[in-house]
Amino acid sequence: MIRLRRLLAYSLVVIGILILLYPTVSKWYDIRQEEKLMAEWESNEMNEEAQIVGQEEYDNLTTLFAQETGNSEQSPSSTSSSEETTSELSESPIPTKEPVKLNAIATIKIPSIKLKLPVLEGASQKNMKYAAAHLKETAPIGEVGNAAIAAHRMRAKGRLFNRLNEVKIDDKIIIDTNGKSFTYTVTKVSIVEPTDVSVLNYNKTDKRLTLITCDPVVNPTHRLIVHAEMK
């Protein structure tokens, strides 16, 4: 009986340690995946073509932003009881060493906020966890039309589009694709309702880039939009 109690006590200690370590390990894993994507892009190991279809992915961003806000970058106060944390842990499995199979189509750089991120094709939960995502239903990057790129604003300083609110008019945004580099100049920064699809408007002459993220960082209700054009 004493041995059983001792074993149970050891088990509870191990479970407690795993629960405490999970947010840190999860954050480290996400950052490692982002760095891996950048390294693979820079060594030209990835390639995927963009597509033009429509605007459906824009509407889906509301769900994606809400999911990330609710499930990641938790502070210690958010785990008020071991019961809640255990439930959370069971819903989100501990990351494994299995590589995430993602294909970068470009990188986005904004020198003014020291941003450099891989860009993946398609706004999905998996893609936006580690990188920015080109909405495949919008214009291809560098071509006439409106190319939209979305990313989360993580609570960790500098992660993904966390500092996008610091971008100013006339700042440069550089998109490097396979063998080509496109420089856009910021023309407008605004905060809009999630239902405002006018941010994706375009004409048949200009080459526009639209960056999309949630606002504010915690409990977002709106979208932060950065418009830029290639001159």
Structure notes:
This protein has 231 residues and is an alpha+beta fold. It has one domain: Sortase, Chain: A. It has 4 helices and 8 strands; from the N terminus they run αααββαββββββ. The chain has helices spanning 2-42, 56-71, 82-91, 125-130, and strands at residues 104-110, 115-121, 132-134, 145-150, 172-177, 180-192, 207-215, 222-229. Strands 1-2-3-4-7-8-6-5 form an 8-stranded mixed beta barrel. Mean pLDDT is 77; it is low at 43-54 and 70-97.
Fill in the CATH topology: Sortase, Chain: A
| SSE sequence, one letter per element | HHHEEHEEEEEE
Task: Assign the CATH architecture.
Answer: Beta Barrel
Q: What's the main sheet like?
A: 8 strands, mixed, barrel
So what's the CATH class?
Mainly Beta
Helix proportion range: 25-40%
Strand order of the largest sheet: 1-2-3-4-7-8-6-5
Report the C-alpha radius of gyration, rounded.
Answer: 20 Å
Question: Beta-sheet strand percentage?
Answer: 25-35%
Shape type: elongated
Number of separate domains: 1
Tell me the structural class.
alpha+beta
Relevant CATH superfamily: Sortase
* Average of pLDDT: 77
Number of strands: 8
Number of discrete helical segments: 4
Low-confidence spans: pLDDT under 50, at least 5 residues? 43-54, 70-97
Distance between the termini: 78 Å
